[in-house]
Amino acid sequence: MMSYILKQREGQFLLIGTILLVLGFISFTNPVLSRLFFYAAIFFLGFFATKDAVIETLKDKSPNVDLLMVLAAIGALLIGYESEGAMLLFIFAGAEFLEDFAMNKSTRAIEELMGQVPDTAQLLKENGDVVEVPTSQLSIGEVVVVAKGAQLPIDGYLDRTTTVNEAALTGESLPVEKDKGEEVFAGTINEGNSIYLTVSKTSKETVFSNIVRMVEEAQSRPSQISRMIDRLESKYVIGVLLAVPVFIILLMLIGSMSFQDAFYRGMVLLTVASPCALVASATPATLSAISNGAKNGILFKGGAAMEALNTMDILLSDKTGTLTFGEFKVVDYQVPERILKEVVFMEQTSSHPIAEAISTSYSDLSLDSVDQNEMVEEIVAVGMQKGDIVVGKPSYFDTFNDPNGYRKQVEQGYTTIFVGQGQEIVGYFVLADQVRSEAKYAVGQFQKEGVDVQLITGDNPKVAKLVSDEVGIKSFQASCLPEDKIKRVQTEHQAGHVVGVIGDGINDAPALAGADIGIAMGSGSSVAMESADVVIVKNNLAKLFYSYELSGKLNRIIKQNILFSISVIVILVILNIIGILDLPMGVVFHEGSTILVILNGLRLLAEKDTQENTHQESVEVTSLKN
């Protein structure tokens, strides 16, 4: 705390002013010296408040709360209450500095994010030398060297296969294999051997820099309540400035007070009626919630999105990439081993997701017996062929003989691939799109909170039903085109619902933009993320429910703060009218309420996901994609 005070000019002035204030009280036996100390203390303690009051009033053409405090201190000086004026500015300056310190804590999420990316890189020069340069100076196409165990300083393409730990981006603790030519991202860790990385984005365009940019933009976009309070602030201050002289005159006429006593009470009113706590009711809490969300992998594009999330009562969810991984896995097969080796060899030549799933599932299978010189051909929109062996869609095999009855054994709704030799079906593969382990948990928790989660997908009804049954969704709409999704959003709007939409593809962008709360998965398209209000960076749907709860806590804290701050103002004004509140005590209670409101909002920084371990448990896969 002391180091923070000494580093900031406001803190330095506060420290000097505090010392002068103490000297003023110590020198009470020498009235002239004591008064000089108080005057000097007032200068240092009131310097930044006066500066902000003048600049912001002229800039915005409307008065603010700082102006009220400065006028109250000046008023105290005019009637010979130098010590009270200095005390007023001491407590006000102290509260303002504590507010800045607290607000600084709520914005440290950006520094923490940036701290996960190295600020220097090992650049490989054309002559073979390796030099250390700032990442900000790297250009697209340059090559950097990343040692084993080091963080990647920039986004780029690999020159060889390696293992990368992407926990900082995706939240997945297990490292993933990355092939030659595949793009990897800054902030992740190279757990393989040393690699050469061809820069694909500048430091300002990397995935991490975009995350930081979104957090910064979110913190600069006020919530609806903050905007409302800001609009009321100037009008309220003007009202107080008009009320104070009326109050002084009434005390002199009706209360028969002297001008000095009435003016003193007017300065107390000017102080306690200031809406400092009310102004601080929403912004610190909102920034804390946004920062907490960023640390947990949820980015909100502004305070309004953070506030609104808890108000939705319908969540329309896409399937592929949202409830499921969008990655196939072989869950059943019947193929003779000799034919299986041929099929695996054929599929290794294709980049189709189904081919990759089959070749990955049998990657340890020896292919020495396969004639690797025989040509593998692609049958457009069907599959692959090598000699008399064909693997592809079931519809292609309608005229083939099926002596083993494989057509009857295959369950409807699963992704099925047949294998044929000659004119006979000799085997099949059944593949599944894996349901995300946390999807069932998240859906169940949302439904407990009264949010109706529904599935809207472009897949066929059988697949949609399988996935819905697995994750616990009761209502689904299948075979949806992008225009069908946006129409569904409009229909729910007309029914009076607050609609959230979650998706990851370009086809989801219209619905995301049209929803009350658009939510994009971080692994999705850039168009979807730009169209959304909320981005789930770590692809963990359970984190969305955590943020839903965080949004609810934010709204409750803001309401608590507003009620508390208004109550304190009303009570202090009444006590002043009665005549039992002096200026120092008024400042203590008034600024104390401001500090309490700020600290109440900062509680959201310490919020943690208590269910984090529970919803990470794996879920048995039964939902498949076609």
Number of helices: 23
Question: Overall pLDDT, averaged?
Answer: 81
**Unreliable stretches:** 614-626
Task: Please tally the β strands and state the result.
Answer: 22
What strand order characterises the main sheet? 10-22-21-20-11-18-19
Q: Mind telling me the C-alpha Rg?
A: 33 Å
Strand content: 15-25%
- State the secondary-structure class: alpha+beta
N- to C-terminal distance:
59 Å
* Major sheet summary line: 7 strands, mixed
Shape verdict:
elongated
Subcellular location: Cell membrane; Membrane
Main location: membrane
Protein name: Heavy metal translocating P-type ATPase
Membrane topology: Multi-pass membrane protein
In short:
It is built from 23 helices and 22 strands.
Characterization of the model:
This protein is of the alpha+beta class and 626 residues long. It is built from 23 helices and 22 strands. It is elongated and about 115 Å long.
Indicate the topology:
Elements (H helix, E strand, L loop, with lengths): L1 H6 L1 H18 L4 H30 L4 H14 L3 H25 L1 H7 L5 E5 L5 E5 L8 E4 L9 E3 L3 E4 L1 H4 L5 E3 L4 E2 L4 E2 L4 E5 L7 H14 L3 H30 L5 H14 L3 H4 L3 H13 L2 E3 L2 H6 L5 E4 L6 E11 L2 H11 L5 H9 L14 E4 L3 E4 L2 E4 L13 H4 L5 E7 L2 E12 L3 H10 L3 E5 L4 H11 L3 E3 L4 H13 L4 E5 L5 H6 L2 E5 L4 H6 L2 E3 L4 H38 L4 H20 L24
Parallel strand pairs: 11-18, 11-20, 18-19, 20-21, 21-22
Antiparallel strand pairs: 1-2, 1-3, 3-9, 4-7, 4-9, 5-6, 5-8, 10-22, 12-17, 13-14, 14-15, 15-16, 16-17
